[in-house]
Amino acid sequence: MLVNRILKHGKKSLAYRILYRAMRKIQRKTEENPLVVLRQAIRGVTPKVTVKARRKSGSTYQVPIKIRSTKAKVLAIRWLLGASRKRPGRNMDLKLSYELINAAKKQGNAIRKKEETHKMAEANRAFAHYR
């Protein structure tokens, strides 16, 4: 699933190359198993709730909704890749490796995105009955 999200213009071999290079860089930097770091990063970024816009009598409310684990994992991967693409730097494998390492340490832009979503859901908890 991660490789298919990295994919640009149908170049799957390039996406695999980016992922494997990022894993190699994680191995060198942390001296840990890169799959463990990847799992920690995805688990750390995975949201529990999200907000969904609902229209009720002319007004739009941001209603907090619990999300299923598959949808949450897709969001986590999307946020990780988006944050790594926005990072300054030369190549994607370097940016992805740094973002994964930071996410595993509970830092970085992907973690901030998750916390923003949770704060928004908490702030709009009063509209939960519009579900």
TrEMBL record:
One of its GO terms (molecular function) is structural constituent of ribosome. Coiled coil: none annotated. The keyword Chaperone does not apply. CDD domains: uS7_Chloroplast. It comes from Podocarpus latifolius. The gene is rps7. Keywords: Chloroplast, Plastid, Ribonucleoprotein, Ribosomal protein, RNA-binding, rRNA-binding. Its main location: plastid. Residues 1-125 form the Small ribosomal subunit protein uS7 domain. This is Ribosomal protein S7. GO terms for biological process: translation. Belongs to the universal ribosomal protein uS7 family.
